[in-house]
Amino acid sequence: MNQTTVSTRAWAEMLLLGGIWGASFLAIKLALTEVPVFTLVAHRVFWACLILWAYVALRRLPLPKDPRIWGAFLIMGLLNNVIPFTLMAWGQQFIETGLTSIFNATAAIFAVLVAAMAFADERLTARKAIGVTVAFAGVAVAIGLDALRGFDVRSLAQLAVIGGTLSYACAAVWARTTLRGLPPQVAAAGMLTGSTLIMLPLAYAVDGAPSLPVLPQTYAAITYFAVGGTAIAYLLYYRVLAMAGSGNAMLVTLLIPPIAILLGWLVLGERLAPNAFAGFALLSTGLVILDGRVLARIRRLAA
Length: 303
Description:
Layout: H1 8-31, H2 37-59, H3 67-92, H4 97-104, H5 107-118, H6 126-143, H7 145-149, H8 153-178, H9 184-207, H10 216-249, H11 252-268, H12 274-291, H13 293-302
């Protein structure tokens, strides 16, 4: 879908979605002061799972009857929730909220590479190769030379977040292969069911029985990232996808870091190094090249 055909309402909902996901990084950072990583992820998927199944029931959406689909939900939950949510939450303990959100944007880059390897109709064109190269240069700049010279826990945290985005890309390929034709809300609810079945026993095994947080802000943070940042965000994302198309929906990726950076600065007093902003600028340029529409418009104007 062409950008010029996107309605004002679609743009407003894309901005809203970017704001919701941008604020989720702050909520996770706040919750991590009291809640261990695996328990935090278990909270996120469990409560979101309940909300989405309530939505599916209210809408009376048809449920899949093939047992293989329910097995695919388990793998989808692992790839799209368990692995990325856990890696990113662990990484956020050691790096800034805004920097985490910048690395999160690499999911779109990995999606192009993984899709090119998996599907014949997603081949890596010259334009896509240039976009990926520029974007990865941005990642390298955001990580910084110090991290490349000396490996420490901060370096590992940055790689963990990037690893989570690679898992997102693999999840997209898995969804296209196994979950096509399902109502997206049912697919999301099934995916969260799979991740809940994995995370509840895993969190108990690693963190032990959950204890009640002391700080009110922890309860608010858990509520926000489980209800708003996961359940409501998924439903809103599918609305945006239907109204604006996948190309425009990808632009939400560029809206998330500025919001996360601003909130991290206002609430936590975080200050990112200049290389983080330079890296985000390069990463954004790579995403614009991948999208292709700006380059096409420039060619039309030059013709």
